[in-house]
Structures are given as structure tokens and as C-alpha cells.
Known about the structure:
Layout: H1 14-27, H2 35-48, E1 52-56, H3 59-69, E2 75-78, H4 85-91, E3 96-99, E4 122-126, H5 137-147, E5 150-154, E6 177-181, E7 194-198, H6 201-210, E8 215-217, E9 220-221, H7 232-242, H8 245-263, E10 269-271, E11 285-289, H9 297-306, H10 337-345, E12 346-349, H11 357-371
Parallel strand pairs: 2-3, 2-4, 4-5, 5-6
Antiparallel strand pairs: 1-7, 6-7, 8-9, 10-11, 11-12
Helix pairs in contact: 1-7, 2-7, 3-4, 3-6, 8-11
Pyridoxal-5'-phosphate binds at residues 58-60, 82-83, 85-86, 128, 154, 156-157, 181, 183, 194.
Amino acid sequence: MKTIHVTQPDLPPLDDFLPLLRDIWDNRVLTNGGGFHQRFEAALAEYLGVPHISLFTNGTIALVTALQSLRITGEVITTPYSFVATSHSLVWNGIKPVFADIDPVTLNLDPARIEALITPQTTAILPVHCYGTPCDVDAIQHIADNYNLRVIYDAAHAFGIRRLGERGGSILLHGDLSVLSFHATKAFNTFEGGAIVSPDAKTKQRIDHLKNFGFVNQTTVVATGINGKMSEFNAALGLLQLQHVERAIEKRAAIERRYRSLLQGIPGLRMLAEPVDATRNHSYFPVLIGPEFPLSRDEVFQRLRDGGIMARRYFYPLISDFPMYRGLPSARAELLPVAQEVARQILCLPIYPALTDEDVDRVAGSLRTLVS
Ligand SMILES: *Cc1c(COP(=O)(O)O)cnc(C)c1O
């Protein structure tokens, strides 16, 4: 039986990539802001509807650099329900993560939990637009303004997301900075890659210096920067991927529609509410296996695996339960009841453009069989 993986990276036709590779071979410009880097950066800013963007080698280095660029220190309030890189980027800056519980509907940082965690050391909030569902950006900004805090969004899941009824509308324009990931498993990929969206040219310039060791010219270094530069290979690939991403998202949308109709009405299986005020990129299809389901989430996970269906438990464990975080005062399980429960119930089902209707039917059919 064919194994169905949770995701499968989307690739453009190889023949379309070869001429771009030939260009790189002919020109011998491999990195440091070459032609493809410049073209991809401009095309991406235009596609996303943002004024300024800086390409990076990956999303994690972009997160670390975003925090550096705003000189964030002390404590930062963040979500335990994310990929570990969110909190790791704080620790790499000598910052203490402070975990706040999540909202049970959006699974994003719950704005109502933030204020009680603010101390004189708090300098910023680091929320995640989990599964591409926008955070309550208005409530978060309101708190940030009241307490003079910065807001950096981990937008690794939020490629192309727009809020409806908002001019321009890109979710990436909220907060002080937004950070994207173009890792192979994401809705838009350059094999490895990432980016920071800046509100103005001056901020982008500082970030561009930081991603190149702090160099502003051949002999002047203005900051202890890092090497976060995207190579010409990844930039050329990104330029090509941009031509296909719209179609890929449409295919993902069709898969989600099929799942939703097939899985409707299964007792104990909850699908997330679809945001009504934002676009989607369908990069994940999470379901929650609740207590009314005859099997536990882990039993469902195992049964699907036995049938060759590689669903994934993300996010489980919570970041706050990993050994380097669980000693923090804010990491205690009883303080994060919603995140704890969601981590126990979550299961991400396979979704990617090449997934066939038969595959979707097999996944949904397997889940139905487990209830009967
Ligand atoms: C993928 C991901 C990252 C890390 O991005 P990389 O490009 O893999 O370094 C950070 N945060 C979240 C929420 C992610 O899903």
C-alpha cells in the first residue's frame, strides 16, 4: 500500500529551473545580493503586498535577526503552541521566554493572557499566526501600545495571508516585524529560506546589514551581524516557485474542502473554524481528537500509521514541555491548560498539492472506520 506522508514539497518543473541554473553558472555570482536575490526580493514584496522585505537563509536565522534588529532584551511573551524555533530564537538572543496560554478557537496566543505576565523586564510579544490563522492583531497591538512593547510576528505559516476589508490587507504588515519561513515543508518553499517584512526602508537596511555580518561597505562593520544571506540558487528557485504558488494554494483549498465534507459529523473529531475575515493558504489541515472519540489521539495516530498514513502531531509536545524550557515559571502545565489540551488532541492530516482525491478519501475513510 502506498504511504501517504503528511506533506510533500511542491516543486516547479525541473526544465523551467535549468535555464536559471545556467545563468548562475555563466555569471558566477553565487550569493551576496546577486541578480536573482534582487529580482526575487522585489517579486516577493509585490506578491505579498508589502513595502520592504529581506531574504534570509532560513526562518530561524531571520527570527534571531529580527529580535537583534529591534534590540529586544529581558523577557518576551510568546506562545508554547508552536515549533521550537519560536522560543529558541529568544534564547539565542539571551532573552527569557514567558509562555502565555492560547485561545481555544484560533490556537493563537490569547491576548487576554498577556497583560498578567508583563513585568518591568518585558520588552516584546512574539506571537505566531498558527496554521495561517491570523492572531488577534488589534488586541495584541493595543496591549503593546499601552505597555510600550514591540511585536514581532512569527509568520512562518502565514505566507500570503490577507485580512479582508483592510487596505492592502497583508497580515505581514501588523506588528513591528513579521518573519516568514520558506522551508521545504511550508506552503511556499525555496528548499531552505526565510524573510523579514519591515515597515520602512531604514529598518530593512539595518536588517540587511545584520544578515551580512554587520557590513555596510567593504571596510565598515556597524553591528555584530550574522551570516543570514539567501544564496542565488534559493533565490532563483523562489522566483520560479512564485509563478506556481497560487495554483498550489488552490489545490490545497480543494483538498481541504474534500476533507471537510468527508469528516463532517464524526463524533469527537473537531475541525478548526475557518477564519471568515482572512484569506487562507491551507498549509495544514489540523483536527482535534476529543474525549468523545472512541480512541485517544495517540491511538488514532498509531492506527493511521499502521495503515500507511503519516499524520503528524504538531504541535506536540508543547515548547514549554521541552527540557530546556520546562523549568521556567511560566512553563507549568497548570498555567497553560488550553495549550496542554490542544497538544493532547491535535493531529495534522496529510495536505499538499499532489495529494489525490483517492488519498484524501483513504485518510477520511480510515478515520470513519475508527469510529464505527
Ligand atoms: C518552520 C517554522 C519556523 C522555522 O523556520 P525554518 O525556515 O525552518 O528555520 C519557525 N516558526 C514556525 C512556527 C515554523 O513553523
